[in-house]
Amino acid sequence: MTGTTALKRTPLYDEHLRLGAKVIDFGGWLMPVQYSGIVAEHQAVRENAGLFDISHMGQFFVSGPRAEAWLNGLLTNNIERLAPGGGQYTFLLNEGGGVIDDLIVYRLVDNEFLLVVNAAKVEEDSAWMRGRLEPEGIDFTDRSPQYAGLALQGPKAPRLFDELFGVSRPARNEARRMTRDGVPFVVACTGYTGEEGYEFFFPAAAAPAQWNYILEKGAALGLKPCGLGSRDTLRLEMCYPLNGSDLSPDHTPLEAGLSIFVDLNKPTFVGREALVRQRAEGIPLRLAPIRMKEKGPPPRAHYPVLKDGQKVAELSSGTLSPSLGCGIGMAYLPAGLARIGEELEIEIRGRRFAATVERKPFRKPSGNPE
Q: Other C-beta atoms within 10 Å of 52: how many?
């Protein structure tokens, strides 16, 4: 329980318990943090494939003749560039340019869009968008409770996809509607591990059967069920930011180094004026990847980052990288210190460990072995 509010469960909660998962409170959801172990699951995704329950994510459907124009006035990226079936990473911002949420929007057909939003932000995002609805030409529906989601990630994911669907795979940042055994899917090709991957969104009632079927079909390829622990080490090795940690209302996408997903040439979107002003005045902070130079305890969020003995920042994320065998993290550094090779220290339990600012990402993806 969180206060008096019961924690939510995905349609796969009982399956996670059956597989012996360690379950934790994650943003108000009971979610598996690990099954066989974070390192084993991490390596499965890097070398073979892993299957993640992402049913806690939100699914908003927006349609109608005004859908494109309305979304383009809310989101930072340019919806007009999306062809049917295309997807893009984008942001919802507050008026000050801070990040409310990062999300992916897919244009399913000409005037129908699917937005996949972060689990902890479903209610806030829905209220924020509904509060800006136009009176005509837009149908906004939050179908999150009716949908389950799975993410298949790893270099052997394409081979397993072929066995599962037997049709051509969606290209990177593409989404398609498909049906298998009478179950309707929206299948997307995005991911958050740096490896090949696919996301499956489908009716929640079908979740246990689909989860078990995919695990059974993938067993020979080394597929493992994976939890939030390996999700975090995988995404941090790629320097992918996590909402609520690396992304927050206190920082802009420009500070996070994600300006490629912000189209300031659009005449208007919420937060645009603040970003234009920040770019003109100079971006004071930069989200920088930091790597420890020596072995030590894993760095964690909020650990102090020091320069010449003085605290200059706190880690927004931190972990022990299974691939690199050392501590890695990210922090919003003063712009003058966010230079590759800058010498810093991370304070962990009263001890200071040498670290340096690195180039993104910490690790290159392994690629498809086919």
A: 26
Strands 310-321 and 326-334: antiparallel
SS3 124: helix
Side chain identity at residue 233, one-letter code: T
305 DSSP β-pair partners: 313, 346
Cis peptide before 361, with omega less than 30 degrees from 0? yes
**Residue 330 near residue 288 (C-beta atoms within 8 A):** yes
Q: What 8-state DSSP symbol labels residue 221?
A: G
% of the chain surpassing 70 pLDDT? 97
Least confident of 105-114, 244-253, 334-343, 357-366: 357-366
Contact 53, 147 (CB under 8 A): no
- Which whole number is the average pLDDT over 330-357? 97
- Residue 315 CA to residue 300 CA, distance in Å, equals 7
Q: Are 160 and 219 in contact (CB under 8 A)?
A: no
The 3-state DSSP class for residue 228 equals: helix
CA-only gyration radius of the chain, Å: 21
Beta pairing class for 29-34 and 112-117: unpaired
By CB atoms closer than 10 A (0-12, 13-18, 19+), residue 200 is buried
Is the preceding peptide bond at 334 cis, omega within 30 degrees of 0?
no
Euclidean distance between CA atoms 344 and 353, whole angstroms: 8
Nearest to 118 by CA among 271, 205, 228, 270: 228
SS3 of residue 149 by DSSP: strand
The token pair that represents 105 in the structure block: 């929007």
Span 148-174, average pLDDT = 96
Q: What is the pLDDT of residues 199-225, one digit of tens each?
A: 999 999 999 999 999 999 999 999 999
Which domains does the chain carry? 8-55+145-237 (3.30.1360.120), 285-357 (2.40.30.110)
Instruction: Give the number of other Cβ atoms within 10 Å of residue 172's Cβ.
Output: 12
CB 76 within 8 A of CB 93: yes
Whether the CB-CB separation of 46 and 230 falls below 8 Å is answered with: no
- CB atoms < 10 A from the CB of 209, how many? 11
Write the single-letter amino acid at 82: L
The pLDDT assigned to 27 comes to 86
